[in-house]
Design goal:
This protein has 155 residues and is an alpha/beta fold. 43% of the residues lie in helices and 19% in strands.
Length: 155
């Protein structure tokens, strides 16, 4: 199972790198059903002028279009960074069964780091969460992006 998680996380990392090339914060996400990627997304709030255009939201939208249903039952979402509150809510509303993320987000993470919306007992749906898959690699993509951004700001 670990190997499968790493394969899908690497697909999400490819999308994160594509976001970085466009000047977006490098986060990528894929939705998987029955071992097949059915949805892809990379951060695009700047290029789309859309504050909700996070990688997770775009991947969920793509997957829902693919299967023709907004309920993504029995699907797994792989994302390079722990989802924020907005994305965690969308993941739950989509009825994603499993969330696998790479790096924790100590500033806005809503799946255990700052908040833990996924374990809120009052909510109807509970997505199983597994964080830290390829943690170092996913964190490195983010670190490199922000390091370059700081260097460019100085020049």
């Amino acid at each position: 199972m670990i190997e499968q998680h790493e394969i899908f996380m690497q697909a999400a990392m490819t999308l994160a790198k594509q976001a970085a090339e466009k000047g977006e914060v490098p986060v990528g996400a894929v939705v998987v059903k029955d071992g097949v990627i059915i949805g892809r997304g990379s951060n695009a709030p700047i290029s789309l002028n859309d504050p909700s255009a996070h990688a997770e939201i775009l991947a969920l939208r793509d997957a829902a279009r693919h299967i023709g249903n907004y309920r993504l039952v029995d699907c797994t979402l792989y994302v390079t960074l722990e989802p924020c509150a907005m994305c965690a809510g969308a993941i739950q509303h989509a009825r994603i069964a499993n969330l696998i993320y790479g790096a924790s987000d100590l500033k806005t993470g809503a799946c255990g780091s700052v908040l833990d919306l996924m374990s809120e007992e009052k909510l109807n749906h509970h997505t199983a969460v597994n964080g830290g898959v390829l943690r170092n690699e996913t964190a490195q993509i983010l670190s490199a992006f922000f390091k370059e951004r700081r260097l460019n700001k100085k020049t």
